[in-house]
Design a protein that fits this description.
Length: about 725
């Protein structure tokens, strides 16, 4: 075995995903482990959460779960709790997105050729790595589990005559079938591929499926629908293993052999459960409130659905250039919802998944080499260019500044060149220093785009400073101040501005028109605070701390009509603060910068306890591939990274009694909250490694050395963190 193959195989082995060979037999599903018992995968399947429900392992390529007829926006994951019908079980899903895609290789068990079935939520069993449901039309019990690259099905039929449909036509949301083929290789093996277009413009999935009983008959309807008939043994049970590859059927076979050579369904469920317990165990969260613990571990679970593996066990992967890259020598990933996740989900990953970070950096650098820019919103090897700004720069800069192993000169060039393109308004940005709404090719969203570019430019500047590239540092630092061009000191809001510096009229800070005004899924009230890279500069724009705080206080009180065209993403409102959408997520922590960190506490607690719940509609907005949950995990531990890169974590109001973060194998960072309760929400004093600590923030570099941070909580505001030298 060569080293590259051994390298990629190590993921499956380290997560306990390889199951030894055994003869097909019925196995009981073993009891779930210590931490998975606190995960409820149905949280977020109702409302507008859009989360994936089904069987997978942490960061796996396969997400095997139920798929329904897509009836609207709330079916972006292919499933919504309001529905009680199923079309089958597909092997790839997105979690929490605002656009639907994937849904590859739909499998449906049947007896009388019915193509869908009713079901009752009362018969669903949902655990990390396992899903089960009874199909009412046929009486078939369906059970699912998975390894990183293989979906494992167990269907128990009420009769010995059984059928199984393989549907290549089905796709979720924007996904549309282009081409495909299924062929029978052996008496119990089929293989094929599916090509589709959608949000990802070109996707190819190869698969091989193996059955525990021989195929009696295969009926083909074109290239998209095959119905397989079986004579089942006495237990009327059919086991199905489906391995995926983005490269070839042969690679899918290798993935199957490496991860699931045997037929022990129960052992596979146990291996998936073990993998989830190991990853959830990166944070030991202690609290007397069992509901808080359930929400916390479900949130942590949601942050580990993506990014997802996008390479085979031999290292092969499909690149951003549309070419197959052989034995890449690193673990390639996909599903990067970066406009969302750079704010919290990625900073959380840098704390609890440090072992994955070099591969993340390599993935980004290879994407840059293959498509000429860092990823914006990358999906199965495709650049979707979804959302605004250069969030890939923010993520790579965060890894860069936190010392993750990479070629730093190569990384800087990737950041710089991505920021100097002529696409998506950057040509006008270079010319004017901001985006005038009247000269850009697309006059919409210029404020949001400009603010996001300024954030990314600050990240480039900090990276240049690290390498002592003074000219680049000064250039990009100046560009990062471009947010000041949109700030109207007269009204105290950021506004659309033309090439002569005149603000757009008429102006209503409450009004929002989805993707058609100066903001992206928001309004002026929400976007005025989107300067996480230079909060003190924003304070100066307001004229000082007093007017800044007055305006910030108002944000959480004011009410106004956003209009009929407002984005549905503007949800989870406290006044005009919109927790359901990501550009607001840092705002609760801005008080620390103005010397009043205690003002954050009641707002953070309100958000943690009222905008998250243990119900199926327990998210106040789209999960957005881990960002909503990433915010909760960090905030529940009392910390949050406001600046987009570098690792300055601001203190908030911890929800737990104690949290232990496993930094490395033999190193932990403990956060203890003494005297904590719903009433005692205010930090009174802090110690770090037993010594008094007066700052209202802590650096990543100090956290990853290991140690103990202790908060003493009280029921009244204190002077902690208010001194000028103690502010971030």
């Amino acid at each position: 075995m060569n080293l590259n193959k051994l390298f990629c195989l190590s993921l499956a082995l380290s997560l306990g995903l390889t199951v030894s060979a055994a003869q097909p037999k019925k196995n009981k599903v073993q009891a779930i482990g210590k931490l998975t018992q606190f995960v409820d995968p149905t949280i977020g399947t109702g409302g507008h959460g859009h989360v994936f429900l089904g069987a997978n392992v942490p960061f796996g390529f396969v997400q095997l779960g139920p798929s329904q007829v897509v009836k609207g926006w709330d079916w972006c994951s292919g499933y919504h709790d309001s529905d009680n019908s199923l079309l089958g079980f597909s092997h790839t899903h997105l979690s929490g997105t605002g656009i639907g895609d994937l849904g590859d290789i739909l499998v449906f068990p049947t007896i009388n050729n019915e193509s869908s079935s009713k079901f009752s939520h009362s018969t669903e069993v949902t655990k990390p790595g396992y899903y089960a449901v009874k199909l009412e039309n046929s009486g078939i019990k369906a059970e699912l589990t998975a390894t990183a690259r293989v979906g494992f099905h167990r269907y128990t039929y009420p009769t010995k005559d059984a059928k199984l449909m393989f549907n290549l036509n089905y796709g979720i949301g924007w996904d549309h079938y282009v081409a495909g083929k299924i062929k029978q290789e052996k008496d119990n093996v089929i293989s094929g591929y599916r090509v589709s277009t959608g949000w990802a413009k070109h996707q190819v999935v190869y698969f091989i499926a193996t059955f525990s009983a021989p195929i009696k008959h295969m009926e083909c309807k074109g290239d998209t629908l095959n119905t397989l008939s079986f004579d089942l043994p006495a237990n009327r049970e059919l086991l199905v293993k489906v391995a995926l590859s983005p490269v070839s059927v042969e690679n899918a076979k290798q993935n199957m052999q490496a991860e699931l050579s045997g037929w022990n369904f129960g052992a596979t469920v146990a291996a998936a459960d073990k993998a989830w317990n190991e990853q959830l165990g990166r944070v030991i969260f202690k609290t007397k409130n069992t509901t808080d613990k359930k929400i916390f571990y479900t949130a942590l679970y949601h942050t580990m659905i993506a990014p997802s593996l996008f390479c085979d066990v031999n290292g092969d992967y499909y690149g951003a250039d549309g070419k197959i890259h052989r034995k890449g020598g690193f673990k390639n990933y996909t599903t990067f919802s970066l406009w969302d996740t750079y704010r919290a989900a990625q900073p959380l990953m840098t704390l609890i998944h440090r072992d994955m970070l070099p591969d993340m950096a390599q993935t980004f650098l290879h994407i840059f080499a293959q498509q000429g820019k860092l990823p914006v919103w990358h999906l199965v090897g495709n650049e979707t260019d979804c959302m605004v700004g250069n969030p890939g720069i923010c993520v790579l800069a965060d890894l860069f500044l936190k010392g993750v192993q990479m070629d730093k000169n190569q990384a800087f060039e990737a950041m710089k060149k991505s920021a100097m393109l002529d696409e998506r308004g950057m040509k006008e940005l270079k010319e004017y220093g901001y985006l005038p709404y009247n000269v850009t090719a697309d006059s919409a969203e210029t404020v949001a785009r400009g603010l996001e570019y300024a954030i990314a430019d600050w990240c480039v500047a900090q990276s240049a400073k690290e390498l002592n590239k003074q000219d680049d540092y000064q250039y990009f630092l100046k560009r990062s101040k471009g947010y000041t061009k949109y700030f109207d000191k007269q009204t105290g809001f950021v506004r659309g501005v033309d090439n002569n510096g005149k603000f757009r009229e008429p102006f209503n800070p409450f009004h929002s028109a989805h993707r058609a005004d100066d903001y992206t899924e928001g309004n002026a009230w929400q976007y005025t605070w989107l300067v996480p890279q230079d909060v003190h500069g924003l304070i100066r724009e307001f004229g000082g701390e007093k007017p800044f705080l007055t305006k910030l206080d108002s944000l959480f009180i004011v009410k106004g009509d956003m209009g009929k065209e407002a984005s549905p993403d503007i949800s989870g409102l406290i006044g005009q603060y919109a927790h359901g959408n990501e550009p607001s997520h840092h705002i609760l922590y801005l008080y620390a910068y103005a010397g009043t960190p205690w003002k954050s506490a009641p707002l953070i607690r309100q958000t943690l306890t009222t905008l998250y719940s243990a119900n199926k509609d327990g998210l106040s907005g789209n999960e957005d591939v881990g960002q909503m949950s990433g915010w909760y995990v960090l905030s529940a531990m009392g910390i949050y990274q406001v600046e987009p890169a570098g690792g300055k974590y601001i203190f908030g109001s911890p929800l737990m009694d104690e949290a232990t973060i496993k930094i490395d194998k033999n190193k932990t960072f403990r956060i203890i909250a003494h005297n904590n309760s719903r009433k005692n929400m205010y930090i009174q004093n802090v110690t770090f490694n037993g010594k008094p600590y007066t700052k209202s923030y802590i650096y990543y570099k100090d956290m990853v050395k290991g140690g103990t941070l202790e908060f003493t909580m009280g029921d009244k505001p204190s002077s902690f963190g208010t001194a000028p030298n103690d502010r971030p």
